[in-house]
Design brief:
The complex is a heterotrimer of chains A (239), B (320) and C (337). With 239 residues, chain A is mostly helical. Chain A contains 9 helices and no strands. In chain A, helix 5 packs across helix 7, helix 6 packs antiparallel against helix 7 and helix 7 runs antiparallel to helix 9. Chain A is elongated. Chain B folds into 2 domains: 189 residues, 3-Layer(aba) Sandwich (D-Maltodextrin-Binding Protein, domain 2), CATH 3.40.190.10; 93 residues, D-Maltodextrin-Binding Protein, domain 2, CATH 3.40.190. Chain B contains 14 helices and 10 strands. In chain B, helix 1 runs parallel beside helix 4, helix 3 crosses helix 12 and helix 3 packs across helix 14. The termini of chain B are far apart. In chain B, 54% of the residues are buried. Chain C contains 14 helices and 13 strands. In chain C, strands 6-7-8-3-9-10 form a 6-stranded mixed sheet, with helices on both faces. In chain C, strand 9 and strand 10 form a beta hairpin. Chain C is globular. Classes of the chains: A mainly alpha (239), B alpha/beta (320), C alpha/beta (337). Chains in contact: A-B, A-C. The interface between A and B is large, with 47 and 66 residues.
């Protein structure tokens, strides 16, 4: 039967001293940040990247299929759009409330929620891109004897790329931001140091993590823009 | 319900032992999410990706509990188990419900909280052992085993400066009776209630104790500035390690007994080896007041991550 | 017999051109009571360029789109050579049909070369063959040096250049027939004239059966070996070579469609050089004009100079005088100088 344990003689590690900046809760203690980078911020940043990329990739896959279907059958675009919009307007925490009983306090819950927020943006971007293909190009393609799959692959999708990239950029930046809330469910991503630091409060921790989130959003947005440019050389051909 | 969601540890502010009635914004959020997590009782709760042999450890959202959870989790992993650590689960009721429904297999809890908040006892306890026994009995009736308790306790206390104590010859809270008017501070939600200002005045017969309410984080400063004479603190506050403060003895045990015990589901014990309860008991013995205060300091003052704090402690004690 | 020389039957016509036969082809669009095309029956001979003209609602675009099955027949039949189009799969049919439209429909994201290569690639041609064909076509439509034009994007081209690429693309897989839906309608008049001339030259060289839809009667007169006039309701009003229509319109509708200057337009079909003239000494002081001018233009010059005729001075044959009376009746006076 258990009792009150006899005190062992624990070796208490030397946790060091806090710098003046840390004790005073300065705006940003660079030393502390640098020291904590490998164990706190770098893992959080990597987790955040993974969370974002997975969510956007899955969201894109779903939205892409839905948009192509809605493009082929116009009556589908309203119901799809309505569902996607509804999911988008749910407050993230409410969505967690709904998901956690089913999928638990896991990364799956987080990803499902993040995917939900990308859907309306990506669905509309893909669909708008497809609908924006010039009619004469489609008519000519059909008249030339391309079947609908070839037209989609060779004409419609390439011409939809600018719109698609634009949607991906918005969705990615949005996801980076929302993914910070994931820390309420799973202790992962840049939201984790932010959350831990807000109630204390410890400026360096949440400013550092917050700044990283902003930087990450910029970097990913920039990468996507570059990809877009590479895929649309024709838009920059000089007349 | 006296037991509300705890708050995160703040530097210069008391750590919240669960049992304090403060509701934080984050706590409410955590409670909401945690409540949702527990809405799936019964079969649903089992389906959350627990593989064979995975041990799910829970912890509440304030630093001391988080570090505790990390200690269990990392040490169990070192034994070779798959461990899933669910932090920030919420208030005592919520995390207890998680335990009884099987969402988590074990978590660290305070004996006093078990007895007063979960089991609903109203009488004051007389000893740490009595509290532990009652806690053990209660949990056993629900299929949960309570293992060895830690030597450290995290409970409310009253602290004065060393200088003030010397001047008035203070050792216990009773000693305050004879010193004339003095100012005591606590946070606004702790005025009434089982361990609040009014309870102290009544139990210790201290009509000379005047109340000043201060928000969390301000009492240590106020003590050192001389703005107040006595302050409501928690016994594991890291400030107590460093500051020139004295904790007065609670002779009537008004603040109860709050050792930490690992609460473990019986079905977990059935499927793992003896090494798990042995480890948890070893862990308990290592958590002395000094050790816990040092770890809290590392978290609150040095701003180290709970996982880091736990890891270095385990490394220093050859548990990793 | 009295064929104007600018319409030849081309010595290098490919053997791969076929005839197109409309056999009581009818199209009624759903929800409409009147037919868009009403039992049209006509034949386009192999190698011939037929212009389909008429006001809007006449069914000319409908007729065109029935050929490559972009629209399906309500009743009747259309045959390519001897084969009914319903016996050929729609996609396969279209890959064997050159199709050029007014807005060109060039794919903006593909270079000129890639645009041209679309159908050949689908048909599985080798890269080398496609390359050679692309160069050949660009030279044919006058976009040289080809290396420079291949890599351009449609957005970098003028309207006329785009149309030429459109034509090259339509010809890419060497189809036996060409369908053209008001291809030059969006061009400014100067460019349009140039491209029309180019296309006539191409047609002479390549000799593919072509159905050419236009609402512009002058274009039809200029381009067509034959003209089919469709009236509203999708009915054939008249079919025949331009000079026949201009000389003898079948009814008032055709006459009014040909316009009040029908007589003068007919004069435009004849070359000055083909008209017999008179050797006069001395030659009258009339305007001196090249042999390539049309009788109509010569008449206009004579009127402008207030002369009674013109002098044909083409540098090769001795100069001769052609009085206005001869200009007015060119079919009578055609013959060697």
């Amino acid at each position: 039967m258990s009792g009150i344990a006899t005190p062992g003689d624990p070796e208490i590690p030397d946790y060091g001293d806090a710098s003046r900046c840390v004790i005073d809760n300065g705006v940003f203690c660079t030393d502390w940040f640098v020291q904590q980078w490998p164990e706190v911020f770098q893992p959080a940043l990597l987790e955040h990247v993974v969370m974002t990329v997975v969510a956007v990739a899955v969201g894109f896959a779903i939205s892409f299929i839905a948009a192509v279907l809605a493009y082929r059958r116009a009556w589908l675009s309203s119901p799809f759009g309505a569902v996607a919009t509804f999911l988008y307007t749910l407050p993230p925490l409410a969505l967690f409330q709904l998901l956690v009983p089913v999928t638990g306090l896991t990364m799956v819950t987080v990803e499902i929620a993040l995917v939900c927020f990308t859907l309306v943006i990506l669905f509309r971007a893909v669909l708008a891109g497809l609908l924006g293909v010039p009619d004469d190009a489609k008519r000519a393609a059909r008249g030339m004897g391309l079947d609908s799959g070839q037209i989609l692959r060779m004409v419609e999708l390439p011409l939809a790329i600018p719109s698609i990239i634009s949607g991906l950029r918005v969705a990615t930046v949005l996801t980076v931001s929302i993914a910070t809330i994931a820390a309420f469910v799973v202790d992962a991503g840049l939201g984790s140091p932010i959350l831990k630091a807000i109630s204390s409060p410890f400026n360096t921790q949440f400013i550092g993590a917050g700044a990283l989130a902003v930087l990450l959003a910029f970097v990913l947005d920039g990468l996507l823009a570059l990809v877009g440019r590479a895929l649309t050389t024709w838009t920059r051909a000089k007349v | 319900m006296r037991d509300m969601t705890p708050e995160h540890a703040l530097p210069g502010s008391p750590q919240r032992r669960p049992g304090s009635p403060r509701i934080s914004r984050r706590g409410v959020l955590s409670a909401a999410v945690g409540a949702a997590g527990l809405a799936a009782l019964g079969g649903c709760g089992m389906a959350t990706g627990k593989g064979e042999g995975t041990i799910t450890v829970g912890s509440k959202g304030f630093a001391e509990s988080w570090i505790n959870g990390e200690l269990y989790a990392q040490a169990l992993r070192a034994l070779g188990y798959q461990v899933d650590l669910k932090t920030n689960v919420g208030s005592s009721e919520l995390i207890d419900a998680a335990l009884t429904s099987g969402q988590i297999d074990l978590y660290p809890e305070y004996t006093g909280v078990i007895v007063m908040s979960l089991a609903g006892h109203e009488d004051l306890m007389e000893s740490a052992e009595q509290t532990l026994d009652l806690a053990r009995e209660f949990e056993a009736s629900r299929g949960v085993t309570v293992l060895d308790a830690t030597p450290f306790e995290n409970k409310n206390a009253i602290a004065v400066t060393r200088e003030f104590a010397a001047r008035h010859n203070l050792r216990t809270i009773d000693d305050l009776r004879g010193i004339g008017e003095f100012t005591y501070s606590t946070y606004p939600d702790n005025v009434s209630g089982g361990q609040g200002y009014e309870a102290i005045v009544e139990t210790y017969r201290l009509p000379n104790m005047n109340l000043r309410t201060l928000s969390i984080g301000l009492n240590y400063q106020a003590l050192e500035n001389g703005e107040i004479d006595a302050a409501d603190v928690f016994t594991t506050d890291p400030q107590l390690l460093r500051s020139d403060l004295v904790v007065l003895e609670d002779t009537k045990n008004l603040f109860g007994f709050q050792n930490v015990v690992p609460c473990v589901r019986d079905d977990l014990l059935d499927r793992v080896g003896q090494d798990v309860p042995d480890l948890l008991n070893t862990m308990s013995s290592l958590l002395t007041l000094e050790a816990v205060q040092a770890m809290n300091e590392a978290s609150a003052i040095n701003r180290l991550d709970p996982a880091q704090v736990a890891r270095r402690f385990l490394e220093a004690n050859d548990l990793l | 017999m009295n064929e104007s020389q600018h319409r030849t039957t081309g010595p290098e016509r490919t053997e791969r051109s076929v005839s197109i036969t409309f056999d009581r082809a009818t199209k009624i669009y759903p929800g409409s009571e009147t037919p868009a095309l009403d039992a049209l029956s006509l034949t386009v001979e192999a190698g011939e360029l037929l212009c389909l003209v008429g006001p809007s609602g006449g069914g000319k675009t409908t007729a065109l789109m029935l050929i490559n099955r972009l629209i399906d027949l309500t009743s009747g039949d259309i045959r390519i050579g001897e084969t009914s189009i319903t016996d050929i799969g729609a996609i396969e049919l279209r890959r064997k049909t050159g199709y050029a439209i007014q807005q060109t429909g060039l794919f903006p994201h593909m270079t000129v070369a890639q645009n041209i290569a679309v159908v050949p690639r689908i048909l599985g041609w080798s890269a080398a063959r496609i390359d050679a064909r692309t160069d050949e076509l660009l030279e044919l439509v006058g976009l040289t040096p080809t290396a420079q034009w291949r890599a351009r994007y449609p957005g970098q081209l003028s309207g006329g250049q785009q149309q030429r690429v459109g034509i090259a693309r339509a010809l890419a897989a060497d189809p036996p027939l060409m369908l053209m839906d008001e291809p030059f309608g969006a061009l400014d008049p100067i460019t349009r004239t140039a491209v029309q001339d180019e296309f006539l030259a191409i047609h002479r060289a390549v000799g593919k059966t072509t159905v050419f839809v236009t609402h512009d009667i002058d274009e039809a007169i200029k381009m067509g070996d034959k003209i089919a006039v469709l009236r509203p309701g999708g009915l054939l009003a008249q079919l025949g070579p331009p000079e026949d229509l201009l000389a003898e319109p079948a009814d008032d509708f055709v006459a009014s469609f040909l316009g009040a200057e029908r007589g003068l337009k007919r004069l435009g079909l004849y070359r000055l050089g083909d008209l017999a003239g008179e050797q006069r000494e001395p030659l009258p002081d009339w305007p001196r004009l090249p042999a390539g001018m049309t009788a109509r233009e010569a008449l206009s010059c004579a009127t402008a100079e207030r002369a009674d005729g013109v002098i044909v001075a083409d540098g090769e044959t001795p100069e001769r005088a052609v009085p206005v009376a001869r200009l007015l009746q060119p079919e009578v006076s055609e013959g060697a100088a």
